[in-house]
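User: I'm curious what two different proteins look like when written out as structure tokens. Can you demonstrate?

Assistant: Sure. I'll show them one after the other, since each token string lines up with its own sequence. Here's the first protein:
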Amino acid sequence: MPLGLIALAIGAFGIGLTEFVIMGLLPEVATDFGVTEATAGWLISGYALAVVVGALGLTAATTRLPRKPVLLGLIVLFIAGNALTALAPDYTVAMIGRIIAALCHGAFFGIGSVVAAELVAPEKKARAIAIMFTGLTAANVFGVPFGTFLGQQFGWRSTFWVISAIGVVAFAGIALLVTAPKSTGPQVSLRSELRAFRSGQVWLSLIVTALAFGGMFGAFTYIAYTLTGVTGFADTTVPWLLVLFGAGLVAGNWIGGRLADRSIDRTLLIFIAALVVVLVLFGFFAWSQPVTIGILVLMGAFGFGTVPGLQSRIMHYAGGAPTLASGANIGAFNIGNALGAWAGGLGIAAGLGYTSPIWIGAAITASALVVMVIAVVAARRPAPATTGSFQTVAA
């Protein structure tokens, strides 16, 4: 395994920690800045929106630049944003810091996926991407609980100083261990990158990403309310239950990467269908503590097990210009997160109870399965003799 993949995973760990650790520190942040928790929550929403902007804008702006220096520049942006957040004298500056840090998120994962795939043999690309994304899953399992504990004991700013230090380690690792791939052809232009979006399979892949992740996060966003209000767990047990979910993320990411190297489409069909089944079972048995414990692991495993395949699929159909499409797919993940959270919230607001986000998530994921079936069927059709505005590539 190339050591450069470890460096990319460290960067992914820091970025994942930046995104998720704030959720456990909102009370401390709100108290420090004298704002309501709802206002402090915009530090999460603002971050997610900035991720989408960065995934498209920064990736497009850097398509003609060598990828390794771009990754290093993105890490510098990450360090600066988190340091500014740690130093922020007021809420506005903290928000600016969060936005700066978020801008690198989508571009880093998008470009990093391409670089990770270039570091290994063609038959190991999905596994390489999975190794990089292991950093993101590890951030949920280990980083977020530790970061929350650190912030509660020594002040929330200490957590963001540690995240900045992780960024420094990632910068050094990428600089020393990530090898620049040898040029295999002419430099890819922005026009070539945009041409990838003429592929109907690229658009279908983006839709599957948004819907599959939207379904899982529709259920996960309000999981604490479900666990305490329906399943009957105590508030103090919720963090440990989320560790189980995180363990499922790690396992699913690893298994999904290995299986996707054998068959991307078959792996995605199986994992998305399994996620639908898991969410339906969760909706029926949310009252059962033993069943819920098992479902949390499976939900994380089948949900995140799709990530290597989804990222590999869109890179495959983008052809020789995968960078912008890869970044767009990271944006699609975050759009899905926002979609799921919004839809799940509608169910609760309508008085349908704390299991309603689970059922809504199951419906969204089922729609992802339908789109995935359409994509697979379309990919198996012979390509037309003449080129049009949409094209498919046989898998």
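Here's a second, unrelated protein for contrast:
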Amino acid sequence: MKAARLLSILLLLQTRGRMTAAELAEELEVSVRTVYRDAEALSASGVPLYGDAGHSGGYQLLDGYRTRLTGLAPGEAEALFLTSMPGPAAELGLGRALSAAQLKLRAALPPELRAQADRMRLRFHLDAPGWYAEHEETPYLGQIADAVWRGRVIEVRYRRWKAPHEVDRRLAPYGLVLKAGRWYLVAGPAEPSADPAAGKPAGPYTYRVDQVLGVRETGEECVLPDGFELAAHWRRTQAEFHERLHPEEAEVRVSARGAARLTGAQARALAAAGTPDPELPGWTRAVLPIESQAHAESQFLELGAEAEVLAPRALRERIGAVAAAMAARYGTGPAVAAVHAD
């Protein structure tokens, strides 16, 4: 445990430069006193580590000092190769750089760790998109990624779902996110005070990169908002999306077969709050989240006779009307009578 912590201190100082004892303690989740003892141990072992006292002081390695990757544990070496994503890297124009970095990393590993990393690379492969997802062309991904990396304002022609369908935007690109095989650009307006009369928030907004029809870099510099973190922003965006996804509810009862066909939020709601139906043995009654009555109509009709909507009344009547029309068409129509006559 101590050896791993000493190596972590060494690598933190090597990658970040000067750090205070308090910063190291917070990063490693130990006390400041433990950091003092570890720093003394590193110095005693010959590591050129020195510390400065005072408000702006901290620990720092001697300029030019570097350590080799001989301290990696087997699981750590395997994880490094497992996290590689050659497909997305190639889309960003970094495929060749990724291959070169992996080659250098592999060469730096001891033979036993190299063999384990090779086995991990050969036996695990990441393919993020779903089976039925078609490949979406992103011809401007490279330009957008370059603007993100260099912090440059871009002007884009963007296709959206509502009218007007093609719009022009001046964007300050904050970051790119790869979600289920699809690239998204997180960006704010190039002018934070844009359109104040309309009361629109200053962003950031999310744009599908495959819907970008054209890009022009302006050369203007853009700066990330204070405190903005892409990963944290994306987590909040996803949480808000799921909250908006099911704004309504429906009370239903489902058979065991119907329950097995529910997925996502509805399956979780049934498992968490479902109760035995008092009228139909073996059935379960629960209040399930729905996107809208129109969406729920087709969704529950897919379950056929394995589900019954009890409320709201309007949704129950919509499904009942469709079921009655289907019964009339399939049960007493002339084509059916002719078949029976044969």
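A detail about the second structure: Residues 335-342 have pLDDT under 50 and may be disordered.
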